[in-house]
Amino acid sequence: MTLEFTTTPSENTVTAEQLAGIFENPGFGRFFTDHMVTIDWTSDAGWFDARVEPYGPIAIDPAHAVLHYGQEIFEGLKAYRHADGSVWLFRPDQNAARLQRSAARMALPEVPAEAFIEACRRLVEIDEHWVPSGAEQSLYLRPFEFGNEVFLGVRAAESARFMVIASPVGAYFADGVKPVRIWLSEHHNRAGKGGTGAAKTGGNYASSLLPTQEAFANGCSQVLFLSSLGDGLIEELGGMNLVLVRGDGTLITPQSDTILDGVTRNSLLELAKSMGFKVEHRPVSIDEWREGVADGSITEAFACGTAAVITPINEIVSADGSFGWPDSEPGKVTMQLRQALNDIQWGRAEDPFGWMVQVTDAKE
Predict the structure, then answer these.
(1) Who has the most CB within 10 Å: 40, 120, 140, 342?
(2) Torsion-angle region of 151 (φ positive above 0: left; ψ -120 to 50: alpha; else: beta)
């Protein structure tokens, strides 16, 4: 399917001086570029009216389906500026495929992969000056889709909208990579078997907010969820996948149909295999982790996702106690993988996997 895009340039773009101020401390999701992409869909017409337009508020009817039944999905990916000034996207095809899987689960229309990638490309092209070049800075893209039929019936919406917005982001760890403490949630679950855990939908994140507040109250940065079946199997964090590292260099990541299929996680595991590490994708229990730390067989752990790439974990805290490696530095394997993936993303190393997609040319 090929969609024709129209472009309406913004008449109120950011100045060079304003942009320089933003780049000094962009944070995450605080500032947004001058434009956005919008594509509409109806059950009769399919996808139509693809457009690049000035960033701004969108009209929401009080009876829009998304407000009442949460029929919404989203993605997250980044654009990177390389040393020669060119700009590249990281694995947009994988985000496009995952959005389609999320759409299928949430009874939303699937955005064709070529339309998804072209929407991201068009936004980056018109707002290229928003792609920062500072250390570990990038442009974060947020594609999302929601049901917007005006109807108060419990069924799939017959009209929907797909959009892409973008925000410059800074280094996740401003003062260097620091290990974090994680709170083990024993009374809340992120998702249940047969539910929406594998879809990237806002409800999964909303359900993690209360346990995350509990984590903050206990001096932790994130929350770890277990299976809703009461079997003690590890799922994922509130917004990131999890990987354990054994002393022999084996990487272990939990497997479940309620875990989000992470693009960053999959990339790290594929990269690890190419570097000679063994990878196991299987069910993992919290007892296996705890006992592995005790006997020294599990030596590192990290969370991974688009925002931080890798976040080292040094302690798991619960109401019954804690385990891990308190006050430790980031693990050797953790940092080796983080550096290797970052080098590919920012163009400091060859990309043997073909993950990077060029959007703009090098500057002369």
Answers:
(1) 120
(2) beta
In terms of Cα–Cα distance, which of 29, 28, 34, 2 is closest to 16?
Answer: 34
Q: Which amino acid is at 85?
A: G
| Whole-number Å distance between alpha carbons of 303 and 337 | 12
Query: Which helix or strand (DSSP H or E) is residue 266 part of?
Result: helix 263-274
Write out pLDDT tens, residues 296-312. Answer: 999 999 999 998 899 99
Distance CA 9, CA 188 (A): 46
Dist CA 223 CA 184 (whole Å): 6
SS3 239: coil
Lookup result for tokens 């020669």 = 84
23-28 long-range CB contacts below 8 Å, 24 or more apart? 23/132, 23/134, 23/137, 23/168, 25/170, 26/132, 26/137, 26/167, 26/168, 26/169, 26/170, 27/169, 27/170, 28/140, 28/167, 28/169, 28/170, 28/172, 28/307
Q: What are residue 52's DSSP bridge partners?
A: 7, 37
This prediction has a pTM of: 0.96
CA distance 346 to 342: 6
Nearest to 115 by CA among 29, 11, 41, 226: 41
- 210 phi/psi in degrees, rounded to 5: -65, -50
Place of tokens 């889709």: 145
Give the residue among 334, 329, 326, 358 at the shortest CA–CA distance from 345. Answer: 358
Residue from 263, 228, 252 nearest 300 by CA: 252
Q: How far is CA 332 from the centre of its chain?
A: 24
Determine which helix (DSSP H) or strand (DSSP E) holds 48, and give its type and residue range. Answer: strand 46-54
* pLDDT attached to residue 350: 97
Contact 273, 211 (CB under 8 A): no
Q: What is the pLDDT of residues 32-85, one digit of tens each?
A: 999 999 999 999 999 999 999 999 999 999 999 999 999 999 999 999 999 999
Structure tokens at 216: 């903050």
